[in-house]
Design goal:
InterPro entries: C-type_lectin-like, C-type_lectin-like/link_sf, C-type_lectin_CS, CTDL_fold. Keywords: Disulfide bond. Pfam families: Lectin_C. This is C-type lectin domain-containing protein. With 341 residues, the chain is α+β, with helices and mostly antiparallel strands. The protein has three domains: 82 residues, no CATH class; 110 residues, Mannose-Binding Protein A, subunit A (Mannose-Binding Protein A, Chain A), CATH 3.10.100; 123 residues, no CATH class. It has seven helices and 16 strands. Strands 3, 4, 5, 6, 7, 8, 9, 10, 11, 12, 13 and 14 form a twelve-stranded mixed beta sheet that branches. The protein has a four-stranded mixed beta sheet with strand order 2-15-1-16, covered by helices on one side. The longest helix has 15 residues.
């Protein structure tokens, strides 16, 4: 099956009289896809499923038919879903499952290489009384000036410590740029191995002394509690007042009678759900078109260009899902005439 694609057609050394060579041109055009391509970002689509399902069934359905249960990560997303929801089809509760669920309260290092830690993966150096945030929040860890650790909202901004690792060896780097924890994690993974994991008092002291005195820095420890079904880190929240309640209520709905605010409910209840689908990206190709013949017709005339493009488009659609557009040269023209030797 052909993937959808957009082709920019630009001229190359053109002499032109008629369209009698059209079939040869089209064969060449379709075979030119190997010249190169630029993949565009997929378009994300959202689907409300009004047939009641429990959370696990809804997750399986979304993964089979689409991509996954929806991840709601911004107010813009909340507003969009509110506009799409048909409350009259959701029953008396007017809510729908989203992809957020509660797992367990556990602190984990950003670097997931178990071989790096050996028996030292459980080392902690919390300040007195820490960590002290609510069980249902997602928090990240920073190091105070004295070397002790504290849990804090991941959206706060600090400098941070990256690490390069090889086997069980680690080299640390202080980054002074202020970032939230997630951006710091991305930066470290791009330029080094990951945010710093600390396995001993010696490594902790090494990090404490390498950063400027008086500054707090992110390290790689974070609290893993609520999770999105697609694996995204839970940072944005939109809980209704008094939510989440905890206990056996480990799955999340968006309540569209409350402007899409979230509530936790037992996962076995049957409700509507919201899926998302990342459509297959299309491919943009640029190819050079050469026609041969003698002509007095001006192919830079807009009417001639339109007629030619229509004929090309009609032919290629019989063979693939392709949309053609002309691409102008730097001088503003589409075609130019080849000079004879």
């Amino acid at each position: 099956m052909f993937k959808p694609r957009v082709i920019n057609v630009c001229s190359h050394k053109l002499n032109y009289t008629t369209l009698t060579r059209m079939e040869n041109v089209l064969l060449w055009l379709l075979s030119a896809s190997a010249l190169g391509s630029i993949c565009c970002l997929p378009v994300r689509q959202y689907h409300f499923i009004y047939d009641p399902k429990n959370w696990t069934e809804a997750q399986s359905y979304c993964r089979q038919r689409y991509t996954d249960l929806v991840t709601v990560d911004s107010l813009n997303m909340v507003t969009m879903l509110n506009g799409m929801a048909d409350v009259s089809r959701m029953g008396s509760t007017a809510d729908a499952w989203i992809g957020l669920y509660f797992d367990v309260v556990s602190w984990r290092w950003s670097l997931s290489d178990e071989g790096f830690y050996g028996a030292d993966g459980s080392y902690r150096l919390w300040s007195a009384g820490e960590p002290n945030s609510a069980w249902y929040t997602v928090d990240c860890t920073h190091m105070y000036d004295n070397g002790y650790w504290n849990d804090a909202p991941c959206q706060w901004v600090y400098g941070f410590i990256c690490a390069n690792t090889s086997g069980q060896a680690a080299t640390f780097f202080y980054i002074s740029t202020l970032m939230n924890w997630t951006d710091a994690q991305s930066y470290c993974r791009l330029h080094y191995t990951d945010l710093a994991s600390i396995r001993s008092l010696q490594e902790n002291e090494q990090i404490r002394t390498m950063r400027p005195a008086g500054l707090t820095v992110w390290i790689g420890l974070y609290k893993d509690t609520w999770k999105w079904s697609n694996g995204n880190l839970f940072l944005f929240s939109y809980w209704a007042s008094g939510q989440p309640q905890g206990g056996m209520e480990n799955c999340t709905v968006a309540d569209f009678s409350l402007s899409g605010h979230w509530e936790d409910w037992p996962c076995g209840l049957e409700k509507a759900s919201v899926c998302y689908h990342d459509a297959e990206p299309f491919t943009r190709l640029t190819v050079k078109l050469k026609l041969v013949g003698n002509s007095v017709l001006d192919l830079n005339d807009p009417a001639a260009l339109e007629d030619l493009l229509k004929e090309l488009q009609l032919k290629v659609r019989l063979q693939a899902d392709i949309r053609l557009i002309w691409r102008k040269r730097p001088d503003g023209k589409i075609f130019y005439t080849e000079k004879q030797n």
